[in-house]
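Tokenise the fold.
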Amino acid sequence: MSESRDHLHPLQSKKPPVPDVIGEPRRRWRGTWWREPVPHIGRYAGSVADMPVEVVEYDPTWQHEFAEQRDRLKILLRGWLCEPVEHVGSTAVPGLASKPIVDILAPVTSLTDARGAVSILQQDGWLHWPADPNKSWRLWFLRPQPGARTHHLYLIQYDDPHVGELRTFRDALRADDALRDRYEALKRRLAKEFRDDREAYTDAKADFIDNTVACGRTRE
């Protein structure tokens, strides 16, 4: 898995590598998968602010947007992937209103070896956040830019517990319409309350997510 990859990848363009562009985090928070990173982007985008929190109606095209990136990632990450690329997060739950950002999980054989994929993903338009406080267990990317993001990508070692948590939460929402509706109501309320504070928005969902994951584990 760790052999040299100096040759041009099939989906790589010949343009120069995109540099790491997302700066230091504003503050450190607990290392939980659902706590969405809120990087300080001043070094990248000057005075451009991050996206406000906006929850919109479910859009079936999110599935197509995931599939398009999945097919590219299968090729870009073919030397590192251990399991299929998956659609996770709220946009992976049919009927659930969500922030319009497609979350993608790429389980890799080795997180250490997968660091060799960073430059390949950057050349394909993914922005890497090297200062992610959760970098001990994942590689985190977004596209196309922090102020107008449409996708998040998580490279996580296949046997890390966070992979199971992502799946458990998604599958619980897919299987229980009442649970899905309660989560949607919570998201809509919090989006109004914390429109300009993404960290506060995610923190306020903590109890719901933790309880859902815990209940899902007891059923497995």
